[in-house]
Amino acid sequence: MTATAPQASVQEPDFVLATDIAASPQKVWDALTESNHVKAYHFAFCTVEGTLKAGERFDHNLPDGNLKLGGEVIAVDPPRRLEMTFEPGWAGPDAQASRCVYEIEDTDGGSRFTVLHFGIPKGQEGVKDGWTNIANRLKAYLEDGTTNQEYAA
After folding, report:
1. Distance in angstroms (rounded) separating the CA atoms of residues 37 and 45
2. Strand (E) or helix (H) holding 127
3. Which secondary-structure segment (H or E) carries 61?
4. Which one has a higher pLDDT value, 22 or 47?
5. H or E segment to which residue 132 belongs
6. What is the pLDDT of residue 5?
7. How far is CA 35 from CA 2, 4, 15, 30, 61, in A?
8. Alpha carbon distance 39, 148 (integer Å)
9. Which long-range contacts (CB under 8 A, 24 or more apart) does 117-120 make?
10. What is the pLDDT at residue 10?
11. Residues 6 or more apart from 66 whose CB is under 8 A from it?
């Protein structure tokens, strides 16, 4: 897997997804960054490990301990913005990394969660479907309490 971070530049994202969620920015942030929340709604039942500091690792691991998604934190501004490399563990050790950004802003009804994904490598276009799935599940989790148990039923 490529360990070097993609260069941040004034480039247009390959993918943008904005989702309005009836929850505060802090609750959205916590649901995205705390393991007890992530494993409740993430379709792969991932847990998160790492430190939200620039230069540190922030990884999503499968229940068996294998890496689902790795990343190095590039910039963090809780509860508003998280930028990190996107290292797809599911794609194998030689998979090319890209870069993603979470932005969370206040709205009248709660928050707008936006994912921006830059430099999606050829062959990894399926991440767009993954982001849509995660955003929909995050919204359902925060608004209705829907967890993976309900999806499995």
Report:
1. 10
2. helix 127-144
3. strand 58-61
4. 22
5. helix 127-144
6. 52
7. 25, 25, 25, 9, 10
8. 8
9. 117/13, 117/14, 117/15, 117/16, 117/86, 118/6, 118/11, 118/13, 118/14, 119/6, 119/11, 119/14, 120/14, 120/15
10. 65
11. 89
Q: Return the structure tokens found at 23.
A: 């929850």
DSSP, collapsed to helix, strand or coil, labels residue 84 as: strand
Number of residues that make up the chain = 153
Q: How far apart are CA 19 and CA 16, in angstroms?
A: 10
Q: Measured between alpha carbons, how far is 143 from 140 in angstroms, rounded to an integer?
A: 5
Extract the tokens encoding 85. 């490399």
**Per-residue pLDDT tens over the stretch 93-132:** 889 999 999 999 999 999 999 999 999 999 999 999 999 9
Cis previous bond, 13, omega within 30: no
Q: What is the pTM of this model?
A: 0.87
